[in-house]
Specification:
Blueprint (H helix, E strand, L loop, with lengths): L5 H15 L9 H9 L5 E8 L2 E7 L22 E9 L5 E10 L7 E8 L2 E3 L6 E5 L7 E6 L18 E9 L2 E2 L2 H9 L5 E9 L14 E8 L8 E6 L1 E2 L19 E5 L7 E3 L4
Antiparallel strand pairs: 1-2, 3-4, 4-5, 5-16, 6-15, 7-8, 8-13, 9-12, 9-15, 10-14, 11-12
Length: 283
Amino acid sequence: MDHLPSSTMDSLFESLWSILSPENDHASDVEEFVLLASLAHADVIEFDVVSSESLQIRALWSSSTHDDGWRLNIPAQKDTRVEVGIFQEGSGEDKDEMSLEGLRAILGEDKDFQPTLFTFPHRHHILRSGKLETSLDPAFGSHPVMKTRLPMSALQAPINDTLDHESCRLHALYTLSKDVFVDQYQVSQLAQFNSGGIDNLRGVWGETDLENPSYKTNGWGSVVLVDVSEPQEPSEMTLELPLHVRYLEPLEGGGKRPVEILPPEVFWACENTVEGIYLHSII
């Protein structure tokens, strides 16, 4: 459920709260009520309505909800498989693979935690920025164009046994500070005519106001995602994104204020042809 209005999320939490509240005659035990309360601090939360009587909730916390570390009592339940794991990011066997490594146990079955490794093939394959040349044209002024030269090697989709080669699409992700912005209507028009190597504007997120000066912009900046055009002939290509610099706050006594503009992350996105691999024991 991406991009749900806050009012919808509030309503959903109120419904769950009323069901699990200990004051409710039909409520679950206090442990589930406490667990629901901790969802308010989750960094990522997903709701999946499995059936009319079943709701599945997935949540991720980047840090503990308690000052003194992680504290969570997970009891075993009759006729229910409860699996607990603690994982950290690991390193896969090759550059096209990621992994999670750690410990896991099934309550009521395992006497102790078991070393465990999960591996997953990457869906995204980022091109090394050191191999790409990015510049501003002109290198000064309020309306430069960011140009990124893509050599022939960058325009060749990755090939290995874990992905569907035909599904691969090349994308560019721009992260812009609040001092700089793009006109999404201008970029959409470029994509319409397949100009500047842009085939489609996926979206602009963040600060999109075209008039506000930098010092009146509250957010940190914006993110722009575009699809890169497929070249008609096997040759290098230049990706062009028009930028606009906001009015900056004047310095007392005059002077120059630097504006940092980062090069894009250019990457291939592909469908996987294999599922992740689970290795129960890594020792």
